Amino acid sequence: DGGITQSPKYLFRKEGQNVTLSCEQNLNHDAMYWYRQDPGQGLRLIYYSQIVNDFQKGDIAEGYSVSREKKESFPLTVTSAQKNPTAFYLCASRTGGNEQFFGPGTRLTVL
Amino acid sequence: SQELEQSPQSLIVQEGKNLTINCTSSKTLYGLYWYKQKYGEGLIFLMMLQKGGEEKSHEKITAKLDEKKQQSSLHITASQPSHAGIYLCGADTADFNKFYFGSGTKLNVKP
């Protein structure tokens, strides 16, 4: 089955800790995206990548980092520099100008 | 940056009633996408509109694109409880690299 997966579904982080959210797709899509969603709000773009080994900052990249070493994988690290990381994180992929396919999301909570 | 404004922010309708959600862009639309989200889940793609005047339908949901007004509307006919959720519009930017979302419309359908 082709699709996009995210893990874990729930993640808890202590103050000052870095955590990494996984995103994997087997759709052979070139582009991948990370979004953050806060309660009652839409999605805000954190980082995106059009090809392997290349990625660009979105509108709210501060406190986050990504890598794109493989076409199918685009992990997001939430660093201790991100002061308010509690949110729902969504990963997506697309090819060309077609629609984005979304993963099920990871809910991150700071303890 | 591109901004997408959705209205209304929330909507409660009686089952069987029709409703319309609007999405207005501050910049030229190169591609307008409608998604639906259940709380705590990923986004499900509904429809994509690219040309002015374009109209698409899927089951009881119809979306239109008014390019001159930089606006799209999503119309649900004879709403059902299964239509409940958050509806988000999204748009491509001129270089088709970044992607922006509106803040969403929360729909509740009362049986």
Order of helices and strands of chain A: EEEEEEEEEEE
Largest sheet descriptor of chain A:
7 strands, mixed
Structural class of chain A: mainly beta
Number of helices of chain B: 0
Strand content of chain A: over 45%
Count of individual beta strands of chain B: 11
Task: Report the biggest beta sheet of chain B as strand number plus sense, adding barrel if it closes.
Answer: 6 strands, mixed
Shape of chain A, please?
globular
The radius of gyration over CA of chain B amounts to: 13 Å
Unreliable sequence segments of chain A: none
Q: From N to C, what is the helix and strand string of chain B?
A: EEEEEEEEEEE
- What is the helix tally of chain A? 0
Walkthrough of the structure:
The complex is a heterodimer of chains A (111) and B (111). Helix content of chain A is 0%, strand content 50%. Chain A is mainly β. In chain A, a hairpin with a 5-residue loop joins strand 4 (31-37) and strand 5. Chain B contains no helices and eleven strands. In chain B, a hairpin with a 2-residue loop joins strand 6 (55-58) and strand 7. The interface between A and B is medium-sized, with 26 and 26 residues.
Summarize the structure.
The complex is a heterodimer of chains A (111) and B (111). Chain A has no helices and 11 strands.
Descriptors for this entry?
heterodimer, A: mainly beta, 4-stranded antiparallel sheet, 0% helix, B: 111 residues, 6-stranded mixed sheet, 5-stranded antiparallel sheet, 11 strands
List the helices and strands and how they pair.
The complex is a heterodimer of chains A (111) and B (111).
Chain A: E1 4-7, E2 10-13, E3 19-25, E4 31-37, E5 43-51, E6 54-57, E7 64-66, E8 76-78, E9 87-94, E10 101-102, E11 106-110
Parallel strand pairs in A: 2-11
Antiparallel strand pairs in A: 1-3, 3-8, 4-5, 4-9, 5-6, 7-8, 9-10, 9-11
Chain B: E1 4-7, E2 10-14, E3 19-25, E4 32-37, E5 43-49, E6 55-58, E7 61-66, E8 71-76, E9 85-92, E10 99-101, E11 105-110
Parallel strand pairs in B: 2-11
Antiparallel strand pairs in B: 1-3, 3-8, 4-5, 4-9, 6-7, 7-8, 9-10, 9-11
